[in-house]
Structure formats: C-alpha cells, structure tokens
Design a protein that fits this description.
single chain, about 230 residues, Rossmann fold, four-stranded parallel beta sheet, 8 helices, globular
C-alpha cells in the first residue's frame, strides 16, 4: 500500500513514484526528480535542536539555552512537510516498509556526507508500548535504526522500553507532552557508548528528551538524535 494524499493505493507493478505517480525503475519508490526535491530545513536554526530561532543573534533556542535536554545534538533530514510528510504517512499508516528502506538510505547518506555527530559507537531508537506496536505491527523508529545500522556498520542496541501507554503526543501542547511522557521509558541496557537515538519525527522534543535523559542516567556518554523530519 502507499499514501497519495487522498488515500492508500496498492504498490502493484509497474512501479510508480509514490509522490508524483511517474513510472520508476526496478523497485524505487520515488522518481529521481522527487527524490532530489525533498526539502531541507531552512532559516536560522538552533545549533542544538534545529528549532527556528526568533532572535538570529543567538545560536540556541530558549529551551536548549535554559534546560537540561539530555541530548547533545539533534539533526533532521528536512521539515515535516511535502515529500517527507507523505513518505512518513505511507510508512506509519500505509505500512509500506519499502519507505523505511528508502529513508534508512537517506539517513545513512546524511551521516556519511555531513557527519554531524563525530564518533558514534551505537545506534538505538525510541521504543513503542507493547499495545501500540501490536496495533501498528512494527515500530517505525526501530525499522529506521536497523536499516541505518546495517548501512553504516554500527551496532543497533535495544536500550529502552516504553513501560506505559501514553496519550498521542500530537493532540497535546508542549507542557502536556512533557508530563505525558514523564516516567514512560525504562532503561533496559546501560552502557558508556556515544549513542545515536533514531526516531521518525521531532516535534517539541519531549519524546527524545525523556529518552535521552533516561539514557544518560544509564551511563551513556553522549546522546545524539537523528530523525527524518522536524515538525
């Protein structure tokens, strides 16, 4: 299945671009034009979390400048808009795993070409509750992390578990999101590695902040965050 804005359509042969419906070659989910035009983040951005800056004379947003956010650095491939949004909806709601392979390739290419985190010794991912994973059939963050790890040759570790069901973050405001996630994650593997935490979307940062603080409490020296999109 694939998401085309108005609904989900079968990925039957011959293959078509998920975004523009142009014919593609082999098993490519995007034509070369759409793949090249996926948008990048623009504007003055926080050096730590990539949030838009209101004051361009500073290099950190208010949250990163005043809080212990747990993570050391956040980077995202692009905005949660346009092609990135359609791809993630196809993955999460259309259950199209071919999208995860494409996105993992883009994440790996970003690490190889930009290398924003320096040395990374392990990769991990934001966990889902057992109920939510059962409903979806997979954890999209784990699919991305596993695909990325294979491509860059870095081990993927299961470090966290989500121990209680939480309200959907999209329906909550920023302060509510932080309360909603407090105590929701449990460390299941301690370590000292410099770890890369993978997720699909960064919105307010509440989820990766709670995960990062939990990882730091388990001894991890540095926690970097890499997501496909930033809302």
């Amino acid at each position: 299945m694939r998401w085309l804005g108005e609904g989900f359509v079968s990925l039957a042969f011959p293959p078509f671009c998920l975004l523009c419906r142009a014919r593609t070659t082999k098993l490519k989910i995007l034509c070369s034009s759409c793949a090249e035009q996926l948008p990048a983040l623009e504007g003055a951005r926080c050096q730590q979390c990539r949030d838009l800056l209101e004051d361009t004379d500073v290099d950190l947003c208010r949250a990163c400048g005043t809080q212990n956010r747990g993570f050391d650095l956040v980077r995202c491939l692009g905005p949660y808009a346009g092609g990135w949004s359609s791809l993630l909806q196809a993955l999460k709601f259309g259950r199209e795993r071919a999208v995860a392979r494409f996105l993992a390739e883009r994440l790996a290419a970003y690490l190889d070409t930009v290398g924003p985190f320096g040395q990374v010794e392990a990769i991990t991912y934001v966990p889902m509750s057992r109920r939510d994973r059962h409903r979806r059939g997979f954890n999209q963050a784990q699919l991305l992390a596993d695909g990325l790890g294979r491509r860059v040759g870095i081990p993927v570790l299961k470090t966290l578990a989500k121990v209680r069901v939480t309200e959907p973050q999209a329906a909550l405001r920023a302060p509510q999101r932080r309360r909603n996630l407090r105590g929701a994650f449990r460390l299941i593997r301690s370590g000292t590695e410099r770890v890369l935490l993978v997720d699909d979307i960064y919105t307010t940062g509440s989820t990766v902040q709670e995960c990062s603080l939990t990882l730091k409490s388990g001894g991890y020296r540095a926690v970097y965050v890499l997501t496909v999109a930033r809302a």
